[in-house]
Amino acid sequence: MKIKIGYFYLFTLNFILFSSLFSIPKMTIVLVIDQFAYSYIEKLNKNFNYALKDLLENGVNITNAHHPHGTPSTATGHTALSTGVFAKDHGIINNSWFTLSGKKIKCDDDNSKKTLVFGKGNNLQSYGKSAKNVLRTNITNKFVQKYPNYKTYSISLKSRAAIGMSGKKGKPIWFDKNTGEFTSSKAFFDQKPDWIANFNKNYNINNRIKNYTWSLFYPAESKYYNFDFINFHKETNYKHVQDNKTLINDKTLKNYYKSISDAPNYPDFIKTPLANKMILDFSQNCIDNNFKNKPILLWISLSPLDHLGHIYGPDSIETTDMIYHLDKQIQEFMQFLNKKIGEENILFVLTADHGIKRNVEISQRMGFDAHRIDIHKLTKEINSFIKNKYNIKNILYKIKTSQCYLDKKIKNLSEKTKIQIIKDIKKLF
Ligand SMILES: [Zn+2]
Known about the structure:
- By secondary structure, this protein is of the alpha/beta class.
- It is 39% helix and 16% strand.
- The protein has two domains: 3-219 and 248-364, Alkaline Phosphatase, subunit A, CATH 3.40.720.10; 375-428, no CATH class.
- It is built from 17 helices and 15 strands.
- The strands form four sheets. The chain has an eight-stranded mixed sheet, sandwiched between helices. It has a three-stranded antiparallel sheet with strand order 6-8-7, with no helix packed on it. It has a two-stranded antiparallel ribbon with strand order 4-5.
- Helix 4 (74-83) runs parallel beside helix 7 (159-166), helix 12 (273-290) runs parallel beside helix 14 and helix 13 packs antiparallel against helix 14 (317-341).
- Zinc ion binds at residues 34-35, 74, 77, 306, 353-354.
C-alpha cells in the first residue's frame, strides 16, 4: 500500500509512525521544508505540477496543522517535530539563548572533547556539537531502541536542524559552511563515515557553484509569477534586501566565488535551488550507501527557503520560484526512491518547522496596522519605566526574538515584586 502524507499535524506524527510499525516500511522519509508556511500551499497550489501536486492530490493532507509555541525558529521547530512536545518541555527554546552568566550560546553547542566536529580530512574542529540540551526522547531514539539493527540519518544544511531531528541517538549530518563539506560530530559517529568523505571529495560543490545560474522555472511573464508584490523589493528599493540585488539570472554567485579563498561560508549559495539539489543529492548518496533492504528512518531538512525568505520575504519572486524548483526537485527525488525501493515500501511525510509572515511594509500597503519594533528603543523604554517605578536599574538584559531575558538581580526581589515587574514589562510590549 502506498502511503504519503502531505502535511501533518505535529502531534499525530507519533501516532502515524508507530501505528504503522506493525508493518514497518522499508523507507520512512520525513522531509521538512524550512519556513514552508501553509500559506504558500493556499497561494500556489494551482501552480504545482510535480511532487507537491501529487502529495496534495494523492496523499493524506492535514490542513489544520500548528506548532502552538511562541518561537517560530528552526531548532525549536525541528525538535518539536521529532519529540512531539512544546519548546518549554523539549528545552530548545530558540536557535540560541543567553545563559545565567549572560553568555550567548547556540542550542547545539557542546564544549566536551567527546563531541568535537569533524573537519576536513581526519582533522577535528576545535568546537563540539551535540543534542545535550534536548530534554526529551524522540521518534529517532525510539526507533533506535526498538530496531538497533536498522539505520537512521538526519540530513540538513544546518546542524541545529539535523540535531533537532536526530536527538541524542540518531545520526545527524549537516553542511559545514566553513569547509564546504558535509560533517557531523563525535557525539554521533566515532569517525566520519567513508561514504560522507567520498561525497565531499567527489561532489565538487565549488565547481558546481561556479557554473551555476539560477534561472526562473517558468517563463517570466507567465501566470506562475502573476501575484501582487512579487517584485516589491525591486520596485521600492527595499532596504532589507542586500544591495537590492536578486540571485535570479545573476552572475552574483560566480563573481562572489572568485573572491573566496579558504573560508567560503557560502552566503549566496545557501539561498539558491542549487543548495536544495545538493541536499537531495547527498540524501540519495546516503540511501545508495546505506539501504541494504532493511528499514531506514531518514529525516531530511531543506533549509534554503528559510535563508532566502529571511532576505526577500514570502511574496517575492525569489521564494515563489524556489518553491517551483522544489516541486520538481522533490519529484525527482521521489522517482529515485520509487525506482530503488518501490513506492509500496515507502512512507513519505512532508512538513515544515515553522512559517513566515509577510514583510511589514507590504502588510501596511494592504491596510494592516503593522509596524517594526525597534528592540534597542523598547529595551531602553522598559528599563526606564522599571527604574522610575521600582528604582531598579537595567532589569531587562536582552530581548531576543519574542523572549525577554531579565537581569540576575530579579532573583533577589520578593516574589510579589518579581511578579509585578513581569506584569509591567508584558504591558509595555
Ligand atoms: Zn527554520
